[in-house]
Amino acid sequence: MSGVWIFNNGVIRLVENSNQSGGVTHGRRNVLVYLPTGEVVSSYSSLEQILMSLGWERYFNGDPNLIQYHKRSSIDLISLPRDFSKFNSVYMYDIVIKNPNIFHVRDFH
């Protein structure tokens, strides 16, 4: 749930964004960029290749509605929705935090 809080005549209410995916806001959308090459991650297959080259492995014991990756050298787990169209900035920033200086989230117009 996201939107804007509006205060009018002593009443406050939340006006929700019509987009529930969270990836598009006010005509903009976010993209995940792989910094070493400048490549915009446009599919799970390209993301998986990058993550595997960084030591991440598929994790199959979790929620069947998610694609998950873990790293043997840490306790981190990356969980992504199976549908790439639901891959939004929340998931992108999770990847950025768990892979410092490798990925970046940018606005794409």
Descriptive labels:
single chain, 109 residues, alpha+beta, Metal Transport, Frataxin, Chain A, four-stranded antiparallel β-sheet, three-stranded antiparallel β-sheet, 9 strands, Flowering-promoting factor 1-like protein 2, FPF1
Query: What can be said about the biggest beta sheet?
Result: 4 strands, antiparallel
User: Shape, please?
Assistant: globular
Number of strands: 9
Q: Give the averaged pLDDT, no decimals.
A: 85
Strand fraction: 35-45%
Oligomer: single chain
Number of helices: 2
CATH class membership of the domain at 42-107: Alpha Beta
As residue ranges, the low-confidence spans are 20-25
**Helix amount, in percent?**
10-25%
Protein name: Flowering-promoting factor 1-like protein 2
Organism: Brassica oleracea var. oleracea
InterPro entries: FPF1 (IPR039274)
GO biological process, one term: regulation of flower development
